[in-house]
Task: inverse folding
């Protein structure tokens, strides 16, 4: 029970600062779940991230799976609710307020500031995940290749995920 | 304005959640604007703009905004339930399979490959967002500060946000005035 409560509180706190979306919180989640609380080991966390990537649905499913690992179905549901409710409540009340701002300059300032913050957090997160997950140079190479391909073409991400699964399944990663 | 029942919202967002392979956002546009015609393209962009500046899962935020617009708090709950319930059960099913078959070397390898691709997709999102900032290069200072605080000093996410947000606002004000 204390475990569930701790899961709920710690994930709820992360939700409040998740600017840039779930992507930005993944390294914090890794730190929390693997290094501090020892809920899962690093390899399992990376596998859960991969499963969440390959499955349909919102990208917080890595967190759902950590919850699942800690406390089964109840843990999965508690973790999912915890990561969503604080930001959802904020959005519910603030959306009307932001939409009602008439001054276009004020609107722009909020938008630009949030965008810059989000970009920084997403890039920080990518760096930390690259270092945290990829323990072989071929994996880093694959990550870089994906960045280059997605910047230069409009290939659907699902093909790249399939490519990763094939290369990895063949023992190359 | 058009009214939608919670059930209609639930079904609409379930379809979006379950088709969202490799990111739900493009599917949200396809479902809401093109298929179900709940929002116009401009309305969707406006909602997305607000949802991306808020913390939390972007797609869940869209569910909250759209759901509450058509049916208040009940609508928001219905939309989020639609987005999440199906995918949560699928992902748990996959986790059960994983528990049984994770000893297979091929599966382990495949997941490693997918994780490497996943990280690349995330980095790619960051770089794409970065391109917009070339219009006002001083903003790179804010991004650099975030990277230093987050990577070099390895500060917790909350601290990074607290430190960087005022600087981001300062530069955002200058950027907005310059236009």
Result:
């Amino acid at each position: 029970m204390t475990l569930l409560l701790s899961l709920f509180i710690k994930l709820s706190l992360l939700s409040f600062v998740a600017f840039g979306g779930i992507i930005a919180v993944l390294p914090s989640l890794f730190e929390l779940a693997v290094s501090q609380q020892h809920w899962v080991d690093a390899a399992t966390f990376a596998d859960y991230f991969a499963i969440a990537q390959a499955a349909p649905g919102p990208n917080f499913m890595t967190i759902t799976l950590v919850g699942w690992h800690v406390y089964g179905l109840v843990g999965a549901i508690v973790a999912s609710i915890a990561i969503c409710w604080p930001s959802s409540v904020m959005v519910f009340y603030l959306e009307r307020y932001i939409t009602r701002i008439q001054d276009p300059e004020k609107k722009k300032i909020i938008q630009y500031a949030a965008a810059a913050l989000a970009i920084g957090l997403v890039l920080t997160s990518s760096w930390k995940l690259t270092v945290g997950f990829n323990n072989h140079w071929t994996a880093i190479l694959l990550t870089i290749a994906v960045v280059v391909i997605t910047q230069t073409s409009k290939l659907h991400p699902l093909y790249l995920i399939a490519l990763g699964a094939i290369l990895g399944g063949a023992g190359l990663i | 304005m058009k009214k939608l029942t919670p059930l209609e919202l639930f079904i609409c967002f379930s379809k979006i959640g379950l088709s969202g392979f490799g990111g739900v956002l493009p599917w949200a546009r396809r479902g809401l604007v093109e298929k179900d015609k709940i929002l116009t393209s401009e309305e969707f962009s406006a909602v997305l703009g607000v949802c991306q500046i808020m913390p939390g899962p972007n797609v869940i935020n869209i569910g909250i905004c759209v759901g509450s617009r058509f049916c208040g708090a009940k609508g928001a709950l219905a939309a989020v339930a639609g987005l999440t319930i199906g995918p949560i059960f699928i992902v748990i099913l996959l986790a059960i399979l994983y528990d049984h078959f994770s000893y297979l070397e091929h599966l382990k390898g495949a997941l490693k490959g997918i994780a490497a691709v996943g990280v690349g997709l995330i980095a790619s999102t960051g770089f794409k967002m970065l391109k917009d900032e070339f219009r006002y290069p001083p903003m790179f200072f804010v991004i650099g500060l975030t990277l230093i605080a987050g990577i070099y000093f390895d500060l917790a996410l909350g601290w990074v946000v607290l430190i960087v947000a005022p600087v981001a606002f300062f530069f955002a004000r200058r950027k907005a005035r310059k236009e």
Q: What stands out?
A: The helical segments of chain B are 6-19, 25-35, 41-53, 58-101, 105-131, 139-152, 157-178.
